[in-house]
Amino acid sequence: MNRVYPVIIHEEEGSYWVEFPDLEGCNSIGDSLEECMVNAEEALGGYLAVLLENGDEIPKASRLEKIRTKSGIKSYICVDVNKYHKDTRAVKKMLSIPAWLAKEAEIRNYSLSKILQDALIEKIDIA
User: Fold this and answer.
1) How crowded is residue 57: how many other Cβ atoms within 10 Å of its Cβ?
2) How far, in Å, CA of 114 to CA of 116, rounded?
3) pLDDT score for 126
4) What are the pLDDT digits (tens) for 12-31?
5) Pick from 54, 75, 67: which is nearest to 4 by CA?
6) Which residues of the chain have pLDDT under 70?
7) Residue 100: what are its φ and ψ, rounded to 5°?
8) How far apart are CA 42 and CA 38, in angstroms?
9) Environment class of residue 126 by beta-carbon count within 10 Å: exposed (0-12), middle (13-18) or buried (19+)?
10) What is the DSSP string of 10-50?
11) pLDDT at position 36, please?
């Protein structure tokens, strides 16, 4: 789910910071403009993910021309909220493994669910 929000980019003494006028308390900083914009995307993604996790409504984004500022540059930041919001509910999946392997895992008190989760996270490379 992609979301686009306006930001105001400020420069102070060679560093940058952004504010999201529509999202109270959501802002970010960076030593360079590039770093600041990357951090702004992460801040926006995290902010919206928390709203979703709490069951709160995601505020509507203002149009850039409606934003008033005395300083700074107006722009937009786009974020894929799904990158930051994961549905962590457990789901049952049926799988098959050799009987001898299941027995060895049981003897060692290994959690097959945990092992599968860890292996999938490593395989997908999302850690």
Assistant:
1) 7
2) 5
3) 63
4) 998 999 999 999 999 999 99
5) 75
6) 126-127
7) -60, -35
8) 7
9) exposed
10) EEETTEEEEE-TTSTT-EEEESSHHHHHHHHHHHHHHHHHH
11) 95
